[in-house]
Write a structure and sequence with these properties.
Radius of gyration: 19 Å
Number of domains: 2
Distance between the termini: 27 Å
Order of helices and strands: EHEHEHEEHEHEHEHEEHEEEH
Bound molecules: NADPH dihydro-nicotinamide-adenine-dinucleotide phosphate, N-acetyl-L-glutamyl 5-phosphate
Number of helices: 9
Largest sheet: 7 strands, mixed
Protein name: N-acetyl-gamma-glutamyl-phosphate reductase
InterPro entries: AGPR, AGPR_dimerisation_dom, AGPR_type-2, NAD(P)-bd_dom_sf, Semialdehyde_DH_NAD-bd
CATH superfamily of the largest domain: Dihydrodipicolinate Reductase, domain 2
CATH topology of the largest domain: Dihydrodipicolinate Reductase, domain 2
EC number: 1.2.1.38
Catalytic activity: N-acetyl-L-glutamate 5-semialdehyde + phosphate + NADP(+) = N-acetyl-L-glutamyl 5-phosphate + NADPH + H(+)
Helix content: 25-40%
Strand content: 15-25%
Function: Catalyzes the NADPH-dependent reduction of N-acetyl-5-glutamyl phosphate to yield N-acetyl-L-glutamate 5-semialdehyde.
Number of strands: 13
Length: about 325
């Protein structure tokens, strides 16, 4: 039997990409909403409650409103927004973190898709804490380079306007008050006792990101080198098709650069370990619209419906 799917917010950046990835699958019946009714609560409610699984690709407030519309006890929700990521009763949609995470997604009714910056950060910090390498009170600093599609339709329009401000030509730091909306999930999911110092940087290209976590080795719980951390991450993510831990020195194939758009258009993630015995840089490279949003949401959908985790995705 086909899984009935509704995408609430299917005309937004994340919704369109999910639609594109699901459109020609023969295991899915896509329920569509008339364009003029796409913000009509009654029609959205009818479609949400007719679906087996609804993807919410909406601003936080509309995502909360959509969850309140669910009356069918069998309807399962995958929410791409920030609204429910740290809420009790919601599974965090990053299955590679542990067997427990994957199982919670497989059986869950409410799945919160990770934030894009948070996905990169957590892919690096969660294993280090779980493995006893990083003290939970380590003062983590992180910066994250992202394409402008991370800001949704509004930011895409700003960057693609013919009369745009010249400031948009250069990479721009933001989140300067240290209140970025992903900080909460970064701390809670990893178990860090203090929020990281986090600096996102948006730049003049469509999609893709690099999230960095620098480490002083003398502040770690155990002696580590780039070699030992590469082996640790390779083992942690062994057999995970979406997360590829790169061999040491892999960046030399890109002339020593890690480019923000390296995995643009793809749904997987690459982890690079660089630096030296004293200072190590961990970098997570992926597409904010792929493993950072739609790709991760469809990966969760595949786990929930019991099909191949990579089905319909571009690795
Ligand atoms: N872009 C990214 O890289 C990522 C985005 N996310 C999150 O996913 C969610 C969607 O983001 P994104 O696709 O970028 O955002 P967009 O702004 O591109 O799209 C949001 C869509 O939701 C629609 N919408 C707004 N309010 C309602 C409502 N009440 N009922 C129905 N539809 C509504 C908008 O309509 P209209 O077209 O009229 O504006 C728009 O089409 C957000 O919570 C975002 O933070 C998560 C990870 C990464
Ligand atoms: C460039 C840009 O503005 N990016 C967004 C991240 C998009 C995202 O991950 O949003 P959610 O938290 O809703 O998932 C930001 O930093 O707020």
């Amino acid at each position: 039997m086909k899984t009935k799917v509704f995408i609430d917010g299917s005309e937004g950046t994340t919704g369109l990409r999910i639609h594109e990835r699901l459109d020609n699958r023969d295991d899915i019946e896509l329920l569509t909403i008339a364009p003029e009714l796409r913000k009509d609560p009654a029609e959205r409610s009818r479609l949400i409650n007719s679906s087996d699984i609804t993807f919410l690709c909406l601003p936080d407030s509309a995502a909360r409103e959509a969850v309140a519309l669910v009356t069918n006890p069998n309807t399962r929700i995958i929410d791409a927004s920030t609204a429910h990521r740290t809420e009790a009763g919601w599974a965090y949609g990053f299955p590679e973190l542990s067997a427990k995470h994957r199982e919670a997604i497989r059986t869950g009714k409410r799945i919160a898709n990770p934030g894009c910056h948070a996905s990169g950060f957590i892919s690096l910090v969660y294993p280090l804490i779980a493995g006893g390498i990083l003290p939970t009170d380590y003062p983590v600093a992180s910066f994250s380079l992202t394409g402008y599609s991370g800001g949704g339709k509004k930011m895409i329009a700003q960057y693609e306007a013919s009369d745009r401000d010249a400031e948009l030509d250069a990479p721009r730091e933001y989140g300067l008050s240290q209140q970025h909306k992903h900080l909460k999930e970064m701390r809670l999911i990893t178990g860090l006792s203090r929020a990281p110092l986090f600096t996102p940087i948006v730049s003049d290209y469509y999609s893709g990101m690099v999230v960095n976590v620098p480490l002083y080795t003398d502040l770690l719980n155990t002696t580590q080198t780039p070699e030992s951390l590469q082996a640790f991450f390779a083992d942690y993510y062994a057999n995970e098709p979406f997360v590829k831990v790169m061999p040491l020195g892999a960046e030399s194939e890109m002339s020593g650069f890690l480019s923000g758009n390296h995995l643009s258009g793809y749904d997987g993630m690459q982890i690079y370990i660089t630096g030296n015995e004293n200072r190590i840089q961990l970098s997570s490279v992926f597409d904010n619209l792929g493993k950072g949003a739609s790709g991760a949401a469809i990966q969760c959908f595949n786990i929930m419906t019991g099909c191949d985790e990579t089905k319909g995705l571009n690795l």
